[in-house]
Specification:
single chain, 149 residues, mainly alpha, 2 domains, two-stranded antiparallel ribbon, 6 helices, elongated
């Protein structure tokens, strides 16, 4: 099978590859065998950068035998806006969700919460999440305090 894409589409593909690589690998300290097929495909796609006229955005490191984004690509930060937006959303969503889950367990007890139907658990946690969402939307982390105790 052959897929024809334009130069503009290939440029977008570079951003998609960068975003997916960030999601899969940015937090890992070591290589992960589970991501090897993804890395191999990414390398295959990056190998065509020169063909599309983007050798200024992707370079080959002969020593590592891998393609990497250039400093010029990274300076453009075209992918960063999506990553930053996603990470910001995840941070607040996870913070609110975990605080609500904690509060639900404190209010109802761990056993009661474990025995709740998934629907009831979600519904009750969402009610608790709202107060955190409102607070953080208005004040960010200004009022967030870790108590000794």
């Amino acid at each position: 099978m052959k897929i024809d894409i334009t130069k503009e589409e290939y440029r977008l593909l570079l951003d998609i590859l960068s975003i997916s690589d960030w999601v899969m690998n940015s937090y890992k300290l070591e290589d992960d065998s589970e991501t090897e097929p993804y890395v191999a495909l990414e390398q295959k796609l990056l190998s065509h950068a020169k063909d599309f006229g983007f050798d200024n955005l992707v370079q080959y490191d002969a020593e590592e035998k891998e393609y990497f984004p250039t400093a010029e690509y990274e300076a453009a930060e075209t992918d960063a806006r999506f990553i930053d937006e996603f990470e910001d959303f995840c941070f607040w969503e996870q913070l609110c969700s975990r605080l609500a889950e904690r509060d639900l367990i404190r209010e109802r007890g761990a056993e009661v919460v474990q025995e709740m139907s998934p629907w009831d658990r979600i519904t009750e946690a969402e009610d608790l999440m709202e107060k955190y969402e409102d607070e953080f939307a208005e004040n960010g982390i200004e009022n967030l305090v870790i108590s000794e105790g």
